[in-house]
Amino acid sequence: MTRYQEDCFYCTRNAKLAANYILVAPLHVATVYLSRDQTHRGRVAVVLNWHVDEPYQLTETERHEFYDDVAHAAHAVAQAFHPAKINYATYGDTVSHLHVHVVPKQTTDADWDDAFVNNPANPVLLSDTSYREIIDALRANL
Ligand SMILES: [Zn+2]
Predict the structure, then answer these.
(1) How many Å apart are CA 37 and CA 16, to the nearest integer?
(2) How far is the CA of 55 from the centre of ligand 1 (A)?
(3) Which SUPFAM superfamilies did the record assign (predicted)?
(4) CATH number of the domain encompassing residue 53
(5) 51 with 8: CB under 8 angstroms?
(6) How many angstroms separate the CA atoms of 83 and 42, rounded?
(7) Which residues surround ligand 1, an ion (CB under 5 A)?
């Protein structure tokens, strides 16, 4: 099993990653990235630091460490933005690298009654200053 995949933007950390995410902070076995789409303010992705397709491919210890990092990141999101609920989405079909989207939701959100839209047609993109403010708020709680 390979732990690095040439065509994976989480492994290569290439321009496609930068087009979609901004580095927030490394954690224990994962890295937190801010989603450039801020439809849900504070939305991040927690990305395992090596390539596996599925959580069951991790050892028990690695799996615990990864989900501890997910919980730690979600706690920081909660402390910074006080969402009514956080949804967690683990996908692996378009990018087969274990990562969890941590999506805070407010009861005033238009999609409150649904889970959330992963790639909205009209993403909420912010200024660099606004991204920096969100990242600073997250880092203060990590
Ligand atoms: Zn990868």
Answers:
(1) 14
(2) 13
(3) HIT-like
(4) 3.30.428.10
(5) yes
(6) 9
(7) 5, 8, 10-11, 51, 97
